[in-house]
Fold:
Amino acid sequence: MSDAFKDLRVIITGASSGLGAALAEAMAVRGAHLTLFARREAELGEVAARCRAHGGSAKPVVGDVTSLPDCERLVQAATEGGVGIDLLVASAGVSMWARFDEIEDPSVYAKLMETNYLGVVYPLHHTLPHLKTSSGTLVAISSIQGKIGVPLHSGYVASKHAVVGFLAALRQELKGSGVNILTVMPHWLRGTDLRANAYAKDGDAVGEGRRSHSRESISLEACSEAILEAIRKRKRELVVPWKLRALPWLNLISPGTLDRIVSGAVKAQDDED
Ligand SMILES: NC(=O)c1ccc[n+]([C@@H]2O[C@H](COP(=O)([O-])OP(=O)(O)OC[C@H]3O[C@@H](n4cnc5c(N)ncnc54)[C@H](OP(=O)(O)O)[C@@H]3O)[C@@H](O)[C@H]2O)c1
Structure:
């Protein structure tokens, strides 16, 4: 495993916390050269410092994935001095926790689309020429919610479906280009800021501590290791844990059963219900 990431030139968006930060540290341990991108400067700087302490090189770039000029600046910083790019990990994301019929400001749906969908498209637009040169890899962190519906997450689900659809088309366009596209679909992850920062019905962040994670949730370490393995094997899709691959099939065979399972899982985590 270690050789595959030694001296790999990597961009990670959403690297200031959660899965993006965990992937950065896991790659730093293996000697990757990282350019790390997010809006919170202090948190991003701390992740970069930890990566350097692990032995990797790490350059923090502060910016917003919904801004094309920021994404262009990110790629310019990563390629400074004629350096190439082998791997783009698009991990930036934001969630929601509210029923559609209780949403007070529907512009939340635009924000979810901009961050989760255009937040893959924009960095990739500027990175793709470099990935073609290096026969590199795009890793997009979607979600199992990119394949099924989940209540209280309608805008998030739509944005993750958009990512999955975009990549399914792009994969065909890029056939023969040498670029590999890996779509990652994790279940709930423990130890991230996603829930605290999720949009509530008033458009503000939900905040800390309102909900617990199910026992089925995945650790960041386990998810990161699975993603590194999938990158190394140049896989096209990774569902974590693997047993969730059955859900889209269940949706075809018995959609009502899947609705009951998913609604029950969300209800169990929503202490307002
Ligand atoms: N947590 C889960 O249960 C789960 C499950 C499946 C999939 N995922 C996906 O995993 C990815 C990582 O999420 P996470 O769980 O690790 O949550 P997280 O800890 O909140 O990480 C989200 C990252 O995205 C960055 N970000 C958000 N908006 C941004 C913007 N406009 N521009 C630049 N960076 C932005 C955040 O940094 P700044 O705030 O500093 O910008 C942060 O670094 C997301 O795509 C999420 O949808 C998460």
Q: What stands out?
A: Residues 107-134 form the longest helix (28 residues). The chain has a mean pLDDT of 94. The domain at 2-245 is CATH 3.40.50.720 (Rossmann fold).
